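Contributing: when you submit paired examples, paste them exactly as shown. First protein:
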Amino acid sequence: MDTATDATGTSEHAATGSVVLTGARVVTDDGVLEPGSVQFCQGRITQVNAGPAGPAAPGVEVVDLGGGWLVPGFIDLHCHGGGGAAFTDTDPDRLAQAVAAHRQRGTTNTMASLVSRPVDELVEEVSALVDLVTDGLFTGIHLEGPFISAARCGAHDPSVLRPPDPASLRKLLDAGRGAIRMVTLAPELDGAVDAVAQLVDAGVIVALGHTDATAAQVVPAIDAGATVATHLFNGMRPLHHREPGPIGALLDDERVTIELICDLVHLHPTVVHLAARHAGADRTVLVTDAMAAAGVGDGVYQVGQLRVTVTDGVPTLDGGSALAASTLTLDAALRNVVGRCGFSVPRAVAALSGRPAALLGRTGELGTITVGAVADLVALDEDLHVTRVLKQGVPV
């Protein structure tokens, strides 16, 4: 069938008709098809087959990827912006610009992370994002603070940090109207364990991070329902052989999924390898913690109310050497963990796609190449660079 093809090599036919992608290794939940073919129609995957695609049926477009890999779209559970814009921006065009910077690099679903601000200001920021979650620009909202430790605040304004209280949480949840999917807090703060229970009852994922807790202070929060470690190692009391602290408690608890920032700046490759090997594929998620500079370059930026300078791709708070978020994109994280941290491509894809989808309760719908799943797909060349991205079957 003759069909006009755009610069990505996938036609506008993808929006309405059936398309088959073939000629690449396809990473599925059950293994790698070498090669395989994937057919989708109206945004959903309709067939996944081993071997190259056969002759096209009437009305079906076949696109030969010419080698490389076909993997599920990446899901970033912890991201503050990109493309020169931050998710605290109230301009919808700027927010779309930030999301687009990551989509072009394979992240088909992005959680909008917000840094610590006074509760009333956070309510305003959340309210500005809710409709964009409903419309599908964002997968949800993540509040990274203000209920975190001043001793491990990183690029959060220490003057706005505070313990959680039921009324403040209720105000934020009401503003979110179901769009707040994750909240990071420090388990040692007064009222933190009760806050975990309140958030879990509201259907929110609770992450523990930016914490100076002892291991003994972490366990009650996990028992109350906390299930994620926010960027493990970073913004935490260090691991010590006599006091394992939050790192030891979170890494060793089978109920907890660990986030890792794999820009090879926040974490040494050996640390990534050790943590991921201990946690296993079912408990490891790769995140960017990216700021506005992701996909743009060096310069001076704002993270919340704090001034950040990016030099050689590394963002630091002005006046010091403290890291302030990252300029990472998930395609680079994929190359880093495969090239430097001992991951296979399927294992990396599980941490980029499958496990994040499971945390969001969307297994079988997102983060997978299986019949019935959303056709969020990323084609990669042999060096794991993105060659094309499809969001619900439509070229990005």
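Second protein:
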Amino acid sequence: GVDIDPQAIRASSDNARANGVRAQFVHVDAVGAERFAIVVANILANPLRVLAPALAARTQDGGRIALSGILASQADAVARDYAPWFDIAVRAEDDGWVLLTGTRRTGIR
């Protein structure tokens, strides 16, 4: 896992350990320009919209993205911001919150 917040890295590590999950969490600076097969972001819609180019750049061609922390009323706007790079749509909705998932199209930078 990668994050920009040292406290979130600690909390994620502690949570994984408490649940018996083997995982490693590092600061974003530690991964350089590496691209990943799966990118997951669970923050609010506005930061997700701002981060669209950065998260797209971290997702390898054919890779998957999952975005949550989005109110149903905000899903279309968030999806539009990711549409230049991803085939993306609402995957699930629960109590007014949605999960967007998508696949990164190849050859698009």
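If you have annotations for the second protein, write them as plain sentences, like these:
The beta strands are 2-3, 26-27, 36-42, 59-71, 86-94, 97-104.
The first strand starts at residue 2 and ends at 3.
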